[in-house]
Specification:
By secondary structure, the chain is an alpha/beta fold. Helices cover about 35% and strands about 25% of the residues. Helix 5 (about 185-200) packs across helix 9 and helix 6 runs antiparallel to helix 7.
C-alpha cells in the first residue's frame, strides 16, 4: 500500500491496526498506529526511514513493487529506534552499499543495535544539505532529545515537506493517512496523549526547537511525522499546539487519583471531588482508580490538570505498589506548575501520607498543606478537611 503525499513523494510505511502497546508495554495503544516511511523520486531516489522489524518482509516486498531497490540512491535514518529502523538490516542485505544519512548519535544507535559498522554511514548536522536533483534539496535539522539524542528531521525544499520524525506524531491508524481524513476528536486526543507521555519531559527543548525551525523561515506545506497522520490541512496547527503544550500546559481541571484496599480511600477521593465541584462548578473534576485505569491515559489527565490529589492507604509503612509505581512514572514526565494534595487511611502506623507528600515533592508538584489522614474507616466528620484541600487546590 502507498499514499501519494505530494508530487514525487509517497508514503510507503505500515498501518498497524492491531497494535496494542509500544515501547515494550510502556505505552498503551488503543486506536492503532502507523510506522511511516517515505519515498522521494527526483533525479535521485531517497528512502526516508523504514518500519518495525516484524513487518520488514512486507515492507520490502511492497517497496519492490514501487521501485527497483538498486535505484535507491540514499537512505535517510531520522532516528535509530527500531520502530523506524527495524527493516534496515533486511534492506541492507539487498543493497549493502547504499549511503545512509543520519546524525553522529544515530550511527552509535544503529551500530549498537544491528552490529553493522560497515554500513555506508554519512554523518550530518543541522543545516547540512543533500542535493537530490530537479532543483530540490534535503535540509537536515538535529532534534536532539525529541525524544532520543540521535533524532533529526529532514526538510524537502520545493515541495516544502518537513519529515519531522517523532515530533508532531500520534499513535493512531487512519485509512486515509492525512489529518483531514481522521476523526478529529480521536486525532487530538491521541496527539495530546503522545505529547504528555513521550515528549513532555523535553518541553524546554521543544520550545527551543520550534523557535529554531521557525527561524529558518522555511515554508511548510506538509508535516510528515513517523507515526499517525500526515498534516496537510493547516499543518502548522500541530506546531502551534506543541508550543502551547510545551509552555507549562494546564486546563481548568482538578483530578483525583487513588488506589484502595477496603474502600476507605475511595470515600475520601469522592468527597474531595464533590468539594471541588461545590466550590468551582465550572472546573472539570475527574476521579480515577490508579489500579483499574490505563496509566498513559492517567498521565494525559495529569497533563491537562492544574491540580491533582493522590491517595493511598498505608501499607507496610509505605503506600500501595500501584500508587508507588505510578508516582515513579509521574516523576519521569517532569510536569511543572501544578499543585497536589494527599490523602489516605491507615490502621496502625499511618506513614502513607508522608510518603505521598515526599514523592509528589520529588516530582516537583507544589504540595498543599491540608490533607485527609484517617485511622480505620472514615465517617463524615473525618472528611471535613476535604473542603480545605479543595480550597487549597483551587486557590
Amino acid at each position: 500500500m502507498k499514499f501519494n503525499v505530494k508530487n514525487n513523494v509517497d508514503w510507503v510505511g505500515k498501518i498497524d491496526w492491531e497494535l496494542e502497546e509500544f515501547h515494550g508495554s510502556d505505552y498503551s495503544v488503543t486506536k492503532g498506529s502507523s510506522q511511516n516511511a517515505y519515498l522521494i523520486r527526483e533525479e535521485k531516489t531517497v528512502l526516508i526511514d523504514t518500519v518495525w522489524t516484524p513487518h520488514d518482509e512486507e515492507f520490502i516486498e511492497n517497496l519492490k513493487k514501487e521501485i527497483d531497490l538498486n535505484e535507491i540512491d540514499y537512505i535517510i535514518a531520522n532516528h535509530g529506534e527500531v520502530d523506524h529502523s527495524g527493516s534496515l538490516p533486511a534492506l541492507m542485505k539487498l543493497i549493502p552499499d547504499t549511503p545512509i544519512y543520519c546524525t553522529a548519535n544515530a550511527v552509535k544507535s544503529l551500530t549498537g543495535q544491528f552490529h553493522h559498522p560497515e554500513w555506508n554511514f554519512n554523518v550530518v548536522k543541522t543545516g547540512d544539505t543533500l542535493d537530490i536533483g530537479n532543483g530540490k534539496q534535503l535540509v537536515f535539522v538535529e532534534m536532539r532529545m525529541l525524544h532520543w539524542p540521535d533524532s533529526m528531521a529532514t526538510y524537502l525544499t520545493g515541495d516544502n515537506i518537513l519529515f519531522s520524525n517523532d515530533a508532531f506524531g500520534q499513535h493512531i491508524a487512519v485509512s486515509g493517512m492525512f489529518n483531514d481524513t481522521a476523526n478529529q476528536a480521536d486525532l487530538w486526543e491521541q496527539a495530546m496523549k503522545y505529547y504528555a507521555n513521550i515528549l513532555n519531559p523535553f518541553s524546554p527543548l521543544v520550545l527551543k526547537k520550534i523557535e529554531e525551525i521557525v527561524g529558518f523561515n522555511l515554508p511548510i506545506d506538509i508535516i510528515a511525522p513517523s507515526h499517525g497522520v500526515i498534516w496537510r490541512d493547516n499543518p502548522l496547527q500541530i506546531v502551534e499546539a506543541y508550543a502551547k503544550w510545551a509552555d507549562a500546559y494546564q486546563e481548568d481541571q482538578v483530578t483525583i487519583f487513588y488506589d484502595t484496599m477496603w474502600e476507605s480511600t475511595t470515600k475520601m477521593a469522592h468527597r474531595i471531588a464533590d468539594e471541588v465541584t461545590k466550590l468551582s462548578p465550572g472546573t472539570t473534576v475527574k476521579v480515577f482508580n490508579i489500579a483499574s485505569s490505563d496509566r498513559n491515559d492517567l498521565m494525559t489527565e495529569v497533563f491537562k490538570s492544574k491540580a491533582i490529589a493522590v491517595g493511598s492507604p498505608t501499607v507496610t509503612s509505605s503506600i500501595l505498589t500501584t500508587v508507588a509505581g505510578w508516582l515513579h512514572f509521574l516523576t519521569e514526565l517532569k510536569f511543572v506548575n501544578k499543585k497536589a494534595a494527599v490523602f489516605g487511611s491507615y490502621g496502625w502506623s499511618g506513614e502513607g501520607n508522608k510518603v505521598l507528600r515526599e514523592k509528589l515533592e520529588e516530582a516537583k508538584f507544589e504540595v498543599v498543606e491540608p490533607e485527609i489522614r484517617v485511622q480505620w474507616r472514615p465517617e463524615d466528620k473525618d472528611l471535613s478537611e476535604a473542603r480545605s484541600i479543595a480550597e487549597a487546590l483551587l486557590r
